[in-house]
Amino acid sequence: MKINETGRVGAINSYQRNIEAGRQNEDKKSRRKDEVTISAEAMEMLQATERSSNSERAGQIQDLKQQVTSGTYQVDSSKLAEKLLPYFKQNSEN
User: Fold this and answer.
1) 19 lies in a domain?
2) Residue 39 placed within a domain
3) Helix, strand or coil for residue 93?
4) Cys staple from 73: which of 6, 48, 67, 90, with CB 3.0 to 4.6 Å?
């Protein structure tokens, strides 16, 4: 009685080859990485917008500081109430 036939051994070997080929493909995929580059023009635009927004904000902050120190700053109570209302609604539900 023959247990091992030559045809069966070949089938096992082809199965092992498929597994090894799959592993090699996975290794190639894992080595590949995504890369993002930003052009010089985009960097210049980003820096320009940051500078303009920072200078505007700095001016607003300076104006507010002067108003607070001189005592002319007035709090708008309706805006303050609008901002506080969601906080009180949330706490009253709990």
Assistant:
1) no
2) no
3) helix
4) 67
